[in-house]
Amino acid sequence: MTTKPRARRAFWGDIRFLIGIALVILSIAGVWLIVSSSRETTPVLQANRTITQGEALTSDDFQVVEVSLGAVADGYLAPQDLVAGMIAARTVESGELLPAVATADAQSGRTTNIVIDSSVGIPEKVESGTPVELWYAPRLEDDGEFDVPRILAADVVVASIPETDGMLTQRSAAVEIVIDRADVADVLAAITSGAALSIVPLGTGS
Asked: Which of 64, 71, 77, 155 is least crowded, fewest Cβ atoms below 10 Å from its Cβ?
């Protein structure tokens, strides 16, 4: 007695084959999306110079560059995001893209600028944007000498320094610094009392 051969299941009806095709399509689509997104660029602001904390932000300080930032693009300022009254919430280095967290409204700024005379000059390595400590030595009333130096303000940034010719170890003593408004009274009191002031770059001894 002969038996009929079992009917073979249709190849195109194999569910595993269909799943495989779907996975291949999804994989191709995913790669295409990644490549497409990597080619998309966003216009953002890039600092032309070092901008110190508390400084007003103006269009003259930036150039517009096209960069691929992907999902983090919203974290950086585009040209249209720069508005009047904006200041730097921290030092923005020259060439750095301007992040939104590095900006603040002038009304909410906690810092101000003061010009002091450093009694020991200004080290050559110090420049605009350099974080420093402000030290002072109170003047002794008896003989005009000075007491032991101590820190007056720890969170200080150099805003600007005079330009000088030549490579000198120490430059002109005048320096503009950015300090917290809470430290203004102490700094002014030290200046008016004749204390010796000096700036010390972070990471160095006094």
From this structure: 71
